[in-house]
Every structure is written in C-alpha cells, then in structure tokens.
Amino acid sequence: MQMLTLREREILRQIAAGLSNKEVAQRLGLSAHTV
Q1: DSSP letter for each residue of 1-35
Q2: What is the pLDDT of residues 1-35, one digit of tens each?
Q3: C-alpha closest to that of 32 among 11, 13, 16
Q4: What is the spatial distance between Cα 35 and Cα 2, in angstroms, rounded to a whole number?
Q5: Residue 11 buriedness (CB in 10 A; 0-12 / 13-18 / 19+)
Q6: What is the CA radius of gyration of the chain?
C-alpha cells in the first residue's frame, strides 16, 4: 500500500480538526476541488 505524502497527511490533519474542504483549500492555497 502506498504511503500518504506530506501534503495528503496535512490535509487529513486539518479535516480531522473539523475544517471543511473549502477551509483546507484556502489555508493551503489549493482549489476546493483538489481537496
């Protein structure tokens, strides 16, 4: 099984903390569609 990248782990941490996909995307400078 492939391990998660640093970016993927950061996204998961933020979602686990209760942030929405849109909030995570804004914080990381990504499109909400990417998250």
Answers
A1: -PPPPHHHHHHHHHHHTT--HHHHHHHHT--TTT-
A2: 579 999 999 999 999 999 999 999 999 999 989 88
A3: 11
A4: 19
A5: buried
A6: 10
Paired tokens of 35: 């998250």
Burial class (CB in 10 A: 0-12, 13-18, 19+), 33: exposed
Structure tokens at 20: 């929405």
Sign of CA dihedral 13, 15, 17, 19: positive
For residue 1, what pLDDT is reported?
Answer: 57
**For the whole prediction, is pTM greater than 0.85?**
no
